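DUF1080 domain-containing protein
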Amino acid sequence: MINTLRMLAFLLPAVIFQYVARAQEQWTPLFNGKDINDWIVKIHHHETGDNFGNTFRVQDSTIQVRYDQYGNFNEQFGHLYYKVPFSYYHLKLEYRFTGEWVKTAPSYTMLNSGLMYHSQDPRTMPKEQDWPISIEMQFLAGLDDGKPRPTGNMCSPGTHIVYEGKLDTRHCINSSSKTYGKDEWIQAELIVLGDSLITHIINGDTVLRYSKPQIGGPVVNGFDATQKQDGKLLSSGFIALQSEGQPIDFRNIRILNLEGVFRKE
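Tokens:
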């Protein structure tokens, strides 16, 4: 039965939503609206647990990412990890870009952030590791140039995915989403079925699907070599909110555990 359900997840993605609809009462908040005691900070150039510059803080029932206590940004990319890993789940959150981008951060980080999943444990990351080995649901907002800039994309630090039936080694793959603006609350959803089907949803629209997240490729530096086993499928891992130079707010972070519905034997 389990194998049949996994096959249906590939052939008929709508099946996922039928099962989700049966379990609405089981949504669990990951953020209590008061503090980040259930989360672990890891910022490049700093030891795990050091919330340098009070980068991640809580106000008005939101997790805020701020840089007012920074000098030079100095590639201090950061991530805030929920304390336990997940494998099969449906995650929902809301985000909005706000404030002023840090001008000493790389230009690509303007109105750019994301949600990492299937990430390595932050406690396995050396002080000088820049990005976690993970898959990213990338969040972007439109720039002033009027060009389309979709959100809910896929990026892959130290990883690859299978897209449209083939191993795809591009670092980022754009979604089909609309372009949204700064200071606008956006609802993002991520449905993860272990090492099989992954679905990105933005404001209720399915914008990207792919499968077989796995370790491989560049765009991660300073890692412990024992953590990067290229070719290994990623069936579980940590969830993290990103900090890379643009102030952003996150709220209403909640998860529906699908272990009892789509689970490997």
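The radius of gyration is 17 Å.
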